[in-house]
Amino acid sequence: MNFWLFKSEADVWSWDQQVAKGDQGEEWNGVRNYQARNFMRQMQIGDRGFFYHSRADKEIVGIVEVCALSHPDSTSDDPRWDCVDIKAIRPLTQPVSLSKVKSDPRLTEMVLVNNSRLSVQPVTAEEWNIVCALGSTEPQVD
What we know:
This protein has 142 residues and is of the alpha+beta class. It has a single domain (3-134), classed as ph1033 like fold. 25% of the residues lie in helices and 35% in strands. The protein is built from five helices and six strands; from the N terminus they run βαβαβββααβα. The protein has a six-stranded mixed beta sheet with strand order 2-5-4-3-1-6. The longest helix is centred in the last third of the chain and has 10 residues, at 125-134. The radius of gyration is 14 Å and the shape is globular. Residues 2-133 form the EVE domain.
């Protein structure tokens, strides 16, 4: 299993909206960055990800799961753009702010720290466990 981080502006697509989609999940569409698209093409069903509110809150608020493999993005007629579907699994017990991530010396190599503009990014298993601990959330896979 691989781990990822999905960034969304809360006023565009929030954690509550993701949760409301239930087990059917929702397309993670609108990504127009080749590196982020390529990461989505690598994803497998059951991969887990952090749901991150960017811009205003700048915090990791929940855990999602990939529930559909990479497929054409329904918001584009351009065949270069793909997306995956994700579903909400659970919120973090305590949101983890970007400043908390940046201040933790164990997370200095995390993509979120070094390339904060990338909307879909990989997370290592070690980073996954650390962030879950910071969020007072068990890292286990259900």
